[in-house]
Design a protein that fits this description.
With 111 residues, this protein is mostly helical. The chain has 2 domains: 40 residues, no CATH class; 55 residues, GidA associated domain, C-terminal subdomain (DNA polymerase, domain 1), CATH 1.10.150.570. The chain is built from 5 helices and no strands. The mean pLDDT is 84.
Length: 111
């Protein structure tokens, strides 16, 4: 049922543009909610601290290029690591999985 059909049943009068926005919000609310949840999870994981002495050689699957960049730059968080040129989302996932698997996932930056 469209918003126009619903409005006709209830004798509600709104501008067509407002009705269209209400209809779009109703149709996509589940999708939007899931996306907002995903963004919140990503933000939380990006705050995950990387120890200053983190041994990137222990993370299987990282390319030599990514490993070298991470060792050189020594990012403090996953978010910082993600902003390094050449560090792919797959590499970030490998780092996050390693941190969680080895009990380092709860580490946050102080402050």
């Amino acid at each position: 049922m469209s918003y126009a059909q619903l409005a006709a049943l209830t004798e509600t009068v709104v501008a067509p543009e407002v009705g269209e926005q209400i209809e779009i919000s109703a149709k996509y609310s589940g999708y939007i909610d899931r996306q907002q949840d995903e963004v919140a999870r990503l933000r939380k994981s990006e705050e995950m601290a990387l120890p200053a002495d983190f041994d990137y050689d222990r993370v299987q699957g990282l390319s030599n290029e990514v490993r070298l960049k991470l060792k050189t730059i020594k990012p403090a968080t996953l978010a910082q690591a993600g902003r390094i040129s050449g560090v792919t989302p797959a590499a970030l996932s490998l780092l996050m999985i390693y941190l969680k698997k080895h009990g380092m996932a709860n580490m946050k930056l102080a402050g």
